[in-house]
Design a protein that fits this description.
The complex is a heterodimer of chains A (307) and B (316).
Chain A (H helix, E strand, L loop, with lengths): L2 E8 L8 E7 L3 E8 L7 H19 L7 H22 L10 E7 L2 E7 L3 E6 L2 E5 L5 H7 L5 H6 L20 E2 L3 E2 L5 E5 L1 H4 L4 H8 L4 H16 L6 E8 L23 E4 L14 H18 L4
Antiparallel strand pairs in A: 1-11, 2-3, 2-12, 3-4, 4-5, 5-8, 5-9, 6-7, 6-10, 10-11
Helix pairs in contact in A: 1-2
Chain B lengths: L13 E2 L2 E9 L3 E7 L5 E7 L5 E2 L8 E2 L1 H23 L8 E7 L2 E7 L3 E3 H7 L6 H20 L12 E4 L4 E3 L27 H4 L7 H17 L6 H6 L6 H4 L6 H10 L11 H9 L13 H14 L1
The chains are: A alpha+beta (307), B alpha+beta (316).
Amino acid sequence: MRFTIYQESRQGGRANNEDRIAYCYSRDALLMVVADGMGGHFYGEIAAQIAVQTLTDNFQHEATPTIDDPFRFLQKGITNAHHAILDYSAKHRLQESPRTTCVACIVQDNIAYWAHAGDSRLYLMRGGKVAAQTRDHSRVRLLIEEGVINEAQAARHPDRNKIYSCLGSIDQPPELDFSRKTLLEKGDVLLLCTDGLWGVLSGEMMAVALKGSNLMNAVPMLLAQAETKAGAHGDNLSAVAVRWEESYHEEENLTSISTQTMALNEVTTRFDEFGRNPGYKTDLSDDEIEKAIEEIRAAIEKYNPKK
Amino acid sequence: MAQQANHALPNGYQLEEYLIERQLSLGGFSIVYLANDSRGRQVAIKEYLPNSLALRGEGEICPVISPEHQGAFRYGMKCFFEEGRALARLSHPNVIRVLNFFRANETVYMVMEYEHGRTLQEFIQKHQGHISERFIRGVFTRMLNGLREVHAHKLLHLDLKPSNIYLRTDNTPVLIDFGAARQTLATDQPILKPMYTPGFASPEHYTSRKDLGPWSDIYSVGAAMYACLSGGAPQAADDRLKKNLLTPAIERWNGQYSDRLLEIIDWCLSLDHLERPQSVFALQKALVAAVTPPPPKAEPNWLERVMGKLKKSAVK
């Protein structure tokens, strides 16, 4: 697999950041998750944290190095996260369980699979255009689809933040929408983001900005623009963006990130816990060191046996 | 602040089944030792020891790693594993062989084959500007066989230079030191800076690392060939991007080497990565294409040289 990836979460004008984001990858599979803890509910950030953590934990166990059934993984992972949130609120005797949106995407074999609940979005951008996007589980989205209001009216609609599917609701399990198996092409960008970003900048505009650019520069720039535009009381805003450097259809050539030399059972995870300065974490345990050495020795034995 | 140097393990130290003979080299990330294995065979042992993160004082065995550097130290260790994994999967006469890999003294070690010989760097220094075309073609054609194998495994060397090309006593080349190969994997770690060597690193090393590819190693090959002729590293690529002062090989050594070889060197040293040979195979094909080097001749006097140039331009 080859890709470039960038993620960042900003607090915006709010008192705390209830968005949580993460990505992790094994040698042959990539997972990205964005969760937006719901502000009207208590402990929104805890729900978001549980969602992200549950999915990345599952990934670490199941990506060995591929996921057997990505859609089933997403369905199971998000449902588990939902129950984990309910368990948490029961254990801590919370009056109301915390809630969160969730959008998650798996890429393996140059095929993308995604699922979502709520109004955090995934965009597939190709050639500077939005080639696909998730449909928000929100009332305004339904109103737009019924032709009652248009996009511009939706942006100002009083119910624009109301969603009918989320994780952590006692009354109803999350309603999940799944993508189709989507074959990626070289240069495709997948952007997962919270409404703090897409509510301010249009998908079309972001697709143009991300086309062919360096994600490490382009994504922070978009976030900065959105943050400025949203003003002093703007929402939390977060994004995980990946540019895929291989095509499903063509022979690969050599550039950028390669996961070829990763161990079969190795998973690299990045998620930011709080604020915008995550710092990097490395948790190479003694066990992992032993495993890596064992694997190298096995490779020596296989490819360079003693004469 | 000047970085402190690490002290090597003492000569005669028993490291697992190996007996350290002496230190061979000391780099920013590692120390390489010459050692003997239990059967008395000589091996080279590379010790992971980044001197910005781990410090070993004189007479000590285990390095001191401060808690705040523990994370980065482990991260670097991961990179060291990448190098080990990459090399372990390669089996080619022109690529260094890994024999063993183990953990000791709170760090990790990679055992590699050791053969008598010298680096191309030492050879160049010894023969300042008097290296024959035949030698260059012979060494580079075979070295490229090794590099082709590396690229076939979806790896880039990224730190090719004369001091990383080892010549056995029969002058067959071996690619050594794949410490930079990991750079394809991770470029976002601030403490472990990307490694490159001025003069031999491609322009992409400095500017757009996303453009790194086989052509980047090929730039380094061109620079190494240029160094064979000039006796020193060519102008660094980042300086060339600002003001290109590199005299093309075809101008500088016109008549002393075959035009074809000089053209190949200049081709590899194109600043635009798309203008270089795009694969090792393309470069090898050009290198082995039959050519007759010009017969060695007495240094012509200035008049003959001018006449020669005039004749040449007349033919054009």
